[in-house]
Amino acid sequence: MTHHAYIGDIQDEGLSFLKESQPIQLFQALQQDMLLQAYGIYVLQLVDAALEDNQANPKVYQLLLQVLEALNQGLTAQVIVAYLEIHLLPIFGIHIQWASCATCQTNDRPLRFSLKRQAVLCDRHAFLDVHCLPVSSRAVHVARRLSQVDLKQIQNINLSDQTLKDLRTLMDAIYQEYVGIRLKSKSYLDQISQLEWPSA
């Protein structure tokens, strides 16, 4: 998994030619670690699925490079991937109300996530959706914070295994409900991750 610069002639009609390829970043950790490689492949396919063919998106391209670099540096992979997934949702046309409770706008109480309302609800208003996702308020809080910060502000976050599992459950539910894609790389990542998190 590498980042290259290519030099060539691009023609509107006829054949285009690549003349030269220059490596910029090798992402060695992603090449050497099977789990990190699975994360890297998943984020590449997810970005590819989010973008229209033949349409440049420099902002998403830069985000992808930052995500790959963060994974390569050893930052918590589950958090970094969740960050990407959250910030790609608007590209898929999905706009989640993360900032505060959809009913009372509080943001300083334990929060739940409502798929029905596409928003977070505080503990006082969670009764409005009896099918709020069964994940911890800590995981919802982490997702909320990830939606608000720049990736460069994220350092290693000390989260329990259960919070990381809940964060994964939250993001999987959001993508299944609203985006509706199932990438082969995600299935492979799930299988590899099970080796990291054996069933209790």
Automatic annotation (TrEMBL):
Gene3D superfamilies: Recombination protein O, C-terminal domain (1.20.1440.120). One of its GO terms (cellular component) is bacterial nucleoid. Coiled coil: none annotated. GO terms for biological process: DNA recombination; double-strand break repair. Pfam families: RecO_C. SUPFAM superfamilies: ArfGap/RecO-like zinc finger. This is DNA repair protein RecO. It comes from Abiotrophia defectiva ATCC 49176.
